[in-house]
Backbone:
């Protein structure tokens, strides 16, 4: 009985996983190279950036807020990275660290505006998003820049390619490594981020505080939860995740691109992914892993559009001109479903403020 | 009475002060460097007023929505879609079609916010994306080649008594908005909803209809701005509405309207619009790239929020 | 088994007073509670019980007087500080986080940690221990709190309080939401804790409970401590007499004498809603003032909201003038066919728009009728405002003043004026005089009397039974979402109301109030 209850709590997540299996399965089936290793690697590459942006969006959402600057933040770090990720090993490492710090700082400023400036997160991040785009434009008025090609190759391929590029073990790979060598690097990276950053945060007092605040800020206060600290931490962590996304995008595309519509697109997609993954927009439940699944669903859907057979009934879907529209409709439906609670509430006074 | 007035008028006075400051500084700059007072010349001022009217129309609609404690992020593509469809249709139906599109978008926004109770920030953001998708589909990704119709161009470019027609449109709209806000029940209800929707609801106000109406009007204003803009440039083009979103919000907020809703005078929005336009003008004289503009808009909004946007609902 | 009388009391208050502005919540209270004792605190609404425990639990500071813990002066700046001294309170509004698990909630403040992170296993074990201690081992600590019914949540709240190792445990109306089985568990637990030497303060309305559970009883009235006695030392009647008793006697307008029953204007049959309204059937006639009495939270508020169209999923029927109506929103309730008005409970959050002017607030509900061609008729508006301000004697400098600057009484008058302007035929009042000064209260009573005399039907919920006696033609006592007693005419007495509210049988004798 209680396991059933717990399963229904995860219901949203299970639906999301089912949707992913459905759409990705459909895609793999239709795609001539469906299921092949390089296709999976390519798909993983295309998913990673948005996955991290969605993880970034998840943390403020857990508080019951929203962060509209995640897309711009990612873009800003992308442009920064296109300057810094060149040179020797130490230069690269330093560049990465600097980019991460930029993300941490931007996130912290968001948090400070919310906590100390007492500004609503939505409008505060709308404004900081504008500032961040401006900084991105300063860094890269036109798309360009360069990144270390080795790192770029390593980050967008499999573990085998990493070992190969950097000559690990002199080319003589140990057995255990051979077993996992085909795993695409983005997947490893995301697993690492989840294991080393997200899960520790979620299980810390501060992280749990975020859930508490989203669930009931008043009860959290009465229970002695450190509200300010959790809010600051949430936005700062969001900044970190968005920065990781920006670094990866630079590695993937090899350049920095301060594209405002693209940044806005990432933001909106991140919100949709959060909703699809089952995290409540009112806060208190869900998590970053669920949002990753949400991204996988979104990406699988957009992949499907690429392989629609043009001579079938749904052939019109293949028209590339229609794709932005369909994606927009899907996004609108996703965010609306997530936020519409009007059908369950019994006392209409609860619908207000 | 005094306390109430002061809290609203102070931002307006401050904004007026900044306007004068900018004009003065600019005049000093040109006086010293070129020996002219271009910033005070009638030609310059009229040009600024004309540019301001485009932003002002958008800001007027946005103010209605912000007064209720909501926001409309679908403005960029409502502007573009109305303009593109108006120019595509052409002929005498151009302007009505454009306005109808804006009204429809606003209505849709209102339905989502008032009936589905989706947060306006999210819903209008989604609608913006859908509109963009629609326009990409209809225009094949390129700018439409149809021209703006003569009436549209007339509205934007013609002059009456030396004053650009667009300014008259803005003025007329402003009179309408002020009338709505101060002399009609709906205006009163808009303020009430922004203050405390529960109290308005419990007083028997049909809050859903009011929200629907305000968003529809906002859509209409965006459409109007699109028509004027395309008349001015003689055609509609992709992403023509993008540069108007943030400045419109900034204009409303600078003018003293509380971002959480419930307080604000239209005069403030007008002054805020003029301030933003002058700021833009100064920035282009200084040859500030788009990057700097974005930063400045963002910082200005943050500054105003920190100064005036405090309190009210709990932040989360 | 109570502690010896020579050990110092766990907590003692001397000369403690607390006032909020002009309202005195506590006056010079002398109070003591001992370890190894279950000490009941009785008092009706407004007697000062909640303020008393809020001071002890560290939620508010006293305005005067001293508190001693173990005979040492103590002052708690926050509930956490009180917890550190071993004083833990289970408040009426639950402090549980609905989306988090039971274990998370129980260990929310200082969870067991391993390597800096929360140790989920240890947390679950701790929760299981505490749940077992209160006899609720069947609650799975991994479940989210929102999956539990209210009764179980209350038990989790108690387990959470126990987890803070209290020496003094305060329970405020802790059993009001519990099932009978859980109530037994709580009793058993409290007896166990008393044997172990814990001090327990138990606030309740329910006399039978206090008698069954407590070894000592204190009665509060009007912010003063009246008496403390060992349980059973006073009879029920004596206790009820101690609870009621007035210092100020309000003057009420005379009630109308009726020759025939009034024509029913508002009627409900079998009204049901969720868990809060079980079966309400009532009638309010033309010119009648019907009161709703009973303890807080027995469905009175929900009944008014249901009538006004705020609640969704209301079953049963509502009739106005004998015609069945479906009221789906306040807008419909206000409409011409029905003309209902609701003066809401919390004027600050539900009634008034504080930054807007008095005039704007007054006209909000009636604005639709003051237009000419869609435009507000300014003259008519100004006249209406002036009329209301005069009729209700609202003290303001000008009608443009922001409502937030007015005193509580005047604010309430504005809230009432708003609905008077709509010339409603049915007026619902949700505890209208709570927190209002005496003078304004009198004016409101006169106003209600005048309205009824003019034919308005009034349904009036009040937590002040004195009002119900003074104003109402009939009083309906609600309990558990039902009308359990209807009092009419001479039968509307203090004893009957209080006794019915507490669900006690009275022997029908008219009791006299004991002067303070």
Residues:
């Amino acid at each position: 009985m209680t396991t059933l209850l717990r399963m229904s709590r995860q219901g949203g997540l299970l639906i999301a996983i089912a949707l992913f299996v459905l759409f990705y399965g459909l895609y793999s089936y239709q795609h001539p190279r469906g299921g092949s290793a390089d296709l999976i690697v390519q798909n993983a590459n295309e998913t990673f950036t948005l996955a991290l942006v969605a993880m970034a969006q998840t943390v403020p959402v857990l508080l019951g807020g929203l962060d509209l600057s995640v897309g711009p933040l990612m873009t800003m770090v992308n442009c920064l990275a296109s300057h810094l990720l060149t040179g020797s090993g130490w230069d690269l490492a330093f560049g990465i660290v600097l980019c991460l710090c930029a993300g941490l700082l931007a996130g912290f400023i968001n948090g400070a505006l919310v906590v100390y400036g007492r500004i609503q997160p939505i409008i505060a991040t709308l404004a900081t998003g504008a500032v961040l785009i401006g900084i991105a434009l300063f860094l890269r008025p036109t798309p360009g820049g360069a990144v270390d090609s080795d790192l770029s190759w390593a980050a967008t391929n499999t573990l085998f390619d990493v070992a190969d590029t950097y000559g690990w073990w002199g080319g003589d790979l140990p057995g255990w490594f051979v077993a996992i060598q085909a795993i695409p690097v983005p997947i490893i990276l995301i697993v690492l981020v989840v294991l080393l950053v997200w899960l520790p945060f979620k299980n810390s007092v501060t992280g749990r505080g975020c859930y508490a605040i989203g669930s009931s800020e008043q009860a959290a206060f009465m229970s002695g939860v450190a509200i300010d600290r959790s809010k600051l931490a949430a936005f700062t962590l969001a900044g970190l995740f968005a920065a990781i996304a920006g670094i990866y995008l630079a590695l993937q595309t090899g350049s920095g691109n301060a594209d405002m519509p693209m940044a806005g697109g990432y933001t909106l997609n991140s919100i949709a992914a959060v909703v699809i993954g089952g995290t409540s927009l009112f806060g208190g439940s869900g998590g970053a892993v669920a949002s990753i699944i949400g991204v996988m669903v979104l990406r699988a859907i957009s992949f499907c559009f690429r392989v629609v057979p043009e001579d079938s009934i749904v052939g019109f879907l293949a028209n590339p001109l229609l794709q932005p529209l369909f994606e927009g409709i899907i996004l609108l439906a996703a965010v609306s479903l997530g936020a519409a609670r009007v059908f369950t509430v019994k006392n209409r006074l609860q619908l207000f403020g | 009475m005094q306390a109430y007035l002061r809290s609203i008028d102070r931002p307006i006075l401050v904004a007026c002060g900044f306007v004068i400051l900018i004009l003065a500084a600019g005049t000093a700059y040109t006086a010293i460097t070129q020996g002219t007072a271009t910033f005070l010349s009638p030609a310059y001022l009229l040009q600024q007023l004309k540019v301001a009217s485009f932003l002002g129309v958008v800001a007027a609609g946005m103010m209605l929505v912000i007064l209720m404690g909501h926001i409309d992020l679908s403005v960029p593509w409502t502007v573009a879609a109305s303009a593109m469809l108006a120019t595509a249709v052409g002929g005498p139906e151009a302007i009505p079609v454009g306005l109808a599109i804006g009204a429809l978008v606003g209505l849709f926004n209102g339905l989502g916010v008032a009936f589905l109770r989706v947060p306006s920030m999210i819903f209008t953001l989604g609608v913006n994306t859908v509109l963009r998708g629609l326009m990409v589909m209809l225009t094949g990704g390129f700018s439409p080649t149809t021209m703006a119709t003569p009436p549209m161009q007339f509205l934007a470019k013609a002059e009456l008594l030396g004053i650009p027609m667009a300014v008259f449109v803005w003025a007329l709209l402003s009179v309408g908005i002020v009338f709505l806000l101060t002399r009609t029940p709906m205006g009163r209800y808009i303020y009430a909803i922004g203050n405390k929707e529960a109290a308005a609801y419990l007083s028997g106000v049909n809050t859903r209809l009011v929200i629907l109406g305000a968003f529809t009007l906002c859509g209409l204003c965006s459409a109007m701005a699109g028509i004027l803009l395309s008349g001015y440039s003689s055609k509609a083009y992709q992403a023509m509405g993008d540069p108007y979103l943030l400045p419109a919000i900034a204009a409303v907020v600078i003018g003293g309207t509380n971002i959480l809703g419930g307080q604000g005078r239209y005069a403030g929005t007008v002054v805020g619009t003029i301030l933003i336009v002058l700021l833009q003008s100064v920035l282009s004289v200084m040859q500030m790239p788009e990057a700097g503009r974005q930063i400045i808009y963002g910082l200005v909004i943050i500054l105003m929020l920190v100064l005036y946007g405090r309190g009210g609902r709990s932040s989360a | 088994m109570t502690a010896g009388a020579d050990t110092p009391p766990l907590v003692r208050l001397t000369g403690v007073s607390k006032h909020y502005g002009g309202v005195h919540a506590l006056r010079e209270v002398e109070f003591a509670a001992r370890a190894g004792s279950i000490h009941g605190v009785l008092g009706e609404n407004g007697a000062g019980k909640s303020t008393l425990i809020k001071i002890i639990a560290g939620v508010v500071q006293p305005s005067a007087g001293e508190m001693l813990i173990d005979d040492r002066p103590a002052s708690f700046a926050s509930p956490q500080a009180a917890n550190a001294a071993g004083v833990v309170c289970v408040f009426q509004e639950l402090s549980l986080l609905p989306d988090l698990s039971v274990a998370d909630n129980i260990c929310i403040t200082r969870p067991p940690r391993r390597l800096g992170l929360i140790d989920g296993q240890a947390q679950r074990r701790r929760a299981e221990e505490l749940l077992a201690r209160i006899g609720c081992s069947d609650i799975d600590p991994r479940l989210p709190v929102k999956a539990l019914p209210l009764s179980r949540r209350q038990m989790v709240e108690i387990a959470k309080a126990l987890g803070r190792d209290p020496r003094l445990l305060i329970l405020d109306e802790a059993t009001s939401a519990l099932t009978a089985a859980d109530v037994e568990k709580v009793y058993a637990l409290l007896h166990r804790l008393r044997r172990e030497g814990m001090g327990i303060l138990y606030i309740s309305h329910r006399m039978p409970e206090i008698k069954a559970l407590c070894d000592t009883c204190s009665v509060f009235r009007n912010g003063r401590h009246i008496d403390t006695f060992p349980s059973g030392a006073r009879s029920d009647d004596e206790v009820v007499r101690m609870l009621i008793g007035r210092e100020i006697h309000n003057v009420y307008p005379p009630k109308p004498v009726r020759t025939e029953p009034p024509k029913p204007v508002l009627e409900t049959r079998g009204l049901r809603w969720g868990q809060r309204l079980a079966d309400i059937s009532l009638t309010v006639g033309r010119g009648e003032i019907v009161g709703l009495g009973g303890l807080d939270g027995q469905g009175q508020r929900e009944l008014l909201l249901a009538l006004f169209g705020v609640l969704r999923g209301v079953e049963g029927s509502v009739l106005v003038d004998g015609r069945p109506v479906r009221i789906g929103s306040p807008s419909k309730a206000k409409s011409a066919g029905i003309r209902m008005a609701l003066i809401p409970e919390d004027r600050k959050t539900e009634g008034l728009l504080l930054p807007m002017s008095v005039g704007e607030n007054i006209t909000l509900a009636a604005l639709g009728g003051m237009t000419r061609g869609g435009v507000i008729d300014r003259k008519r508006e100004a006249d209406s405002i002036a009329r209301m301000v005069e009729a209700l004697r609202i003290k303001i400098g000008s009608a443009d003043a922001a409502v937030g600057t007015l005193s509580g009484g005047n604010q309430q008058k504005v809230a009432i004026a708003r609905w008077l302007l709509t010339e409603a035929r049915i007026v619902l009042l949700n505890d209208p005089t709570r927190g209002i000064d005496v003078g304004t209260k009198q004016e409101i009573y006169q106003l209600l009397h005048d309205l009824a005399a003019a034919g308005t039907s009034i349904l009036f919920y009040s937590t002040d039974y004195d009002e119900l006696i003074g104003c109402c033609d009939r009083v309906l006592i609600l309990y558990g979402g039902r009308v359990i007693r209807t009092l009419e005419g001479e039968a509307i007495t203090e004893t009957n109301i209080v006794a019915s509210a507490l669900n006690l049988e009275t022997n029908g004798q008219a009791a006299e109030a004991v002067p303070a």
In short: The longest strand of chain B covers residues 159-160. Residues 42-241 of chain B form one domain. Residues 19 and 275 of chain B are 5 Å apart (CA to CA).
